[in-house]
Amino acid sequence: MNDKAPSFRAAGTRLKGSLRPELSAVCYPVPDERIWRVLDGVHRFDKAHIVMLAEAGILEREDAAKLLAALLELEQAEGGAVQARLDIGGGNHSGEKYLTAKLGEGVAGRIHAGRSSGDISAVANRLTQQCELRDTMRLLLQLRRAVLARAGQDARVLVMGYSHLQHAQPSTMGHYWCSALFGLERDFARLADLYRRFDFSPAGAAVLTGSRFALRPQRTAELLGFSAVFRNSRDAGWAADAYQEAAAALSILLATCGRIADDLYLWSTSEFGIVEIDDGFCINSSILPQKKNPVALEHIRGVGRIAMGRATSVSAAFASPSDSIVFERYLAVEELWRTFDDAKGALTLFSAVLESLTVHEDAALAAFEDSWCWTSDLAAALVLEHGLPWRTAQQSVSVLVRQMMDSRRTAESVTESDVLQAFLTYTGQDGLRLAPGFVDQVRQPRAIVESRIVSGGPAERDVMQQVESAAACIEQDARAAQEFESAAQAADRKLGEAIQALLVPHRGD
Predict the structure, then answer these.
(1) pLDDT value for 1
(2) CA distance 34 to 125
(3) Rounded Cα distance, 65 and 54, in Å
(4) What is the pLDDT at residue 14?
(5) Which transformation does this protein catalyse, written as a reaction (predicted)?
(6) Which of 126, 247, 398, 483 reaches 20 to 30 Å from 364, CA-CA?
(7) Are residues 157 and 263 in the same domain?
(8) Is 509 among the domain residues?
(9) Which residues contact 85 (CB under 8 A, 6 or more apart)?
């Protein structure tokens, strides 16, 4: 047998020759660093399957005890079971390969009863994905708390609101942070929904239709921490949407982070200067002494763009007839694990960036000098106080802006007579009367922000309501994440107890 091949791949059985070195080097390298991520799941499945086989009477307790004792011994190796399996080779069948060498095929050959490479891979991938999701949700909660703190701290800070990167309306930094919070809230919901949707065990499905063995899939699911078992054996092993949805959800999450990072990146430039990234998250230039390059933000937005490409790759890998997709699945999940790594790194980094971020209120206020961002409120005041149709008011103010710019007048120099002249130009009517101070009343950024009476607006009172709502959702989501974690830990304890019960000799033996 080629020592790099899975334990069942032997010359003289179905295939005449040994594994070619060209294939071995590419698909079955030893150690296979590409598969290390799922080997903990493979190891756990091996143990749970042996327990289930023994409890179901398919495997003698004495043999089960030998197999389990050997697997526990493997965990004591330097680097643990995962590193040991990498060194052994055989991929998902590294356990059987190790046990065969240690105990012989007469005992070790029984571990695979009722299993296939298909459900071993599906179970290991599912366990790994659930673990990665729990870690990602925990880090996302951390980021949401960092954004929440910023929203409360910056609730009153006036900033320019932009549309098409043009001055739009006065707003507050707190309002901006809350908009980011609610996007991240939905990102968490997608991850949690994904976790619940695929919280079922593929164990026992084998490669397609199950097997003749009277397995107990419910017991295996219980020992592995799944809340349910598969309802269709083909779907359990061949479904692609678990991977596709995970890649898509991560891509959307990182796109959310990327948009926030892009905004901060822009606002940190010399032209804006609204925010400042801590020096520890920047690098200097090798030639330009004045430079402070916010590379942390560049990384966060960059991995989001890479994740978008990976999500497409993962989906494309499953585009062939479903019964033919085997190695493509391995390639696809490799991309998925890389995206999880990028997501966890970006979330950790972004939390630290926000915790040390400085907001320069004076620079934010400077944007309002001679800005036309108040003109929409001028039109609204003409509607509310003088009964004009909205379109008439809006078009008249648009004429006002053009006339002022044509005459090289500033926004701060606008008077009531300028408004009346624009109204006359647009409507041909001379019946509008404006009280002194009318323009000044609608021109103040703080007054504009506080005038927003629809819920969810930028005024401090509304921002603090949004902060309170977001905080409650964070705590609710934290409880859900803890429930996921507790269920996984409980399953580990249950598996350990079941193993110990089999290792204890029967009375009378």
Answers:
(1) 39
(2) 13
(3) 9
(4) 79
(5) 2-(N(omega)-L-arginino)succinate = fumarate + L-arginine
(6) 398
(7) yes
(8) no
(9) 39, 42, 43, 74, 94, 95, 98
Could you tell me if 274 and 364 are in contact, meaning their C-beta atoms sit under 8 angstroms apart? yes
If asked whether residues 313 and 383 sit together in one domain, one would say no
Whichever domain contains 249, its CATH number is: 1.20.200.10
Q: Retrieve residue 295's tokens.
A: 């590379």
Q: In terms of Cα–Cα distance, which of 248, 237, 224 is closest to 498?
A: 224
CA distance 40 to 92: 10
What's the confidence (pLDDT) of residue 2? 44
- Residue showing tokens 């599912």: 126
Looking at residue 232, the DSSP 8-state letter turns out to be -
Co-location of 129 and 68 in the same domain: no
Domain CATH number, residue 37: 1.10.275
Verify that 227 and 363 share a domain, yes or no: yes
Residue 275, beta-bridge partner list: 359
Residue 6 in domain: no
Task: Say whether the peptide bond before residue 31 is cis (omega within 30 degrees of 0).
Answer: yes
The sign one gets for the Cα dihedral 422, 427, 431, 433 is negative
Query: Does 293 fall in a domain?
Result: yes
Question: In the chain, how many domains are there?
Answer: 3
- Does residue 506 belong to any structural domain of this protein? no
Q: What is the pTM of this model?
A: 0.93
Dump pLDDT digits (tens) for 463-484: 999 999 999 999 999 999 999 9
Stretches where the chain sits below pLDDT 50 are 1-5, 506-509
Among 471, 500, 483, 388, residue whose Cα is nearest residue 434: 388
Q: For 115-143, what is each residue's pLDDT tens digit?
A: 999 999 999 999 999 999 999 999 999 99
Where among 67, 87, 113 does a domain terminate? 113
Q: What is the DSSP letter of 412?
A: G
**In this structure, are residues 253 and 190 in contact, taking their beta carbons and an 8 Å threshold?**
yes
CB atoms within 10 A of CB 128: 20
